[in-house]
Amino acid sequence: MLKIQNLQARIEEAEILKGIDLEMGQGEVHAIMGPNGSGKSTLAKILAGDESYAVTGGGVALEGEDLLAMEPEERARAGLFMGFQYPVEIPGVSNSYFLKAAVNAARQARGEAEIDPVSFLKLARERAQWVQLDESLLNRPVNAGFSGGEKKRNEIFHMAMLEPRLAILDETDSGLDIDALRAVADGVNRMRSPERSFLIITHYQRLLNYIVPDHVHVMVNGRIVRSGGKELAEELERTGYALFDDEEAA
């Protein structure tokens, strides 16, 4: 599904990624954990096509295609979804209008017919319930005036409607209370399938109590220094990241 080889990147003069190697199979859930400034969000943004960062080495393939050669919209059409740590607001554009246009663009890229308004509304109401998103938010401008929890639920709702092949969730759990965390996790778990992979970036093990990953990776100082199963996240909860500072990249 996703293959990252020796990925190196910088922003201006600051080197951030110093050789990332990561391979994800179809249907797998991988979690990346690490302290602030370790490069986790940089990796997510580069995969999504953020041009603020300069890739200085290595490569990324999505289902065999050169991901780095694609424009952001091409990556979306290829089935990549990015859930942002800080979801953007789009004043003046209703949530439902924006999402219907995005869904139809995704369907067109898959060679499917556009969804009709009745079917779209039925599907939107069903998927909104997955994350306990109030239906009134469908008619409001995208994320405008939403609480932090509503914005994160809305991100997962968008993911559920777009049905991506690869979903990257950048600290979706940050700032959520326990009820919102469970709702977000429930939406992700409903979307798990043998055809869909997830890359989850988080500081904390608590999210992984609800979304059980197949693999956990520790990122420190721009490198993945350890990989393992869910027990690795539990170890981090007990020990913190200090023990990994001097480890060589895996």
TrEMBL record:
Name of the gene: sufC
Record Gene3D superfamilies: P-loop containing nucleotide triphosphate hydrolases
Pfam families: ABC_tran
Protein name (database record): Fe-S cluster assembly ATPase SufC
Organism: Halorhodospira neutriphila
Keyword Nucleotide-binding: yes
ABC transporter domain sequence ranges: 2-246
Superkingdom classification of source: Bacteria
Family annotation (InterPro entries): AAA+_ATPase, ABC_transporter-like_ATP-bd, FeS-cluster_ATPase_SufC, P-loop_NTPase
Keywords: ATP-binding, Nucleotide-binding
Family assignment from sequence similarity: Belongs to the ABC transporter superfamily. Ycf16 family.
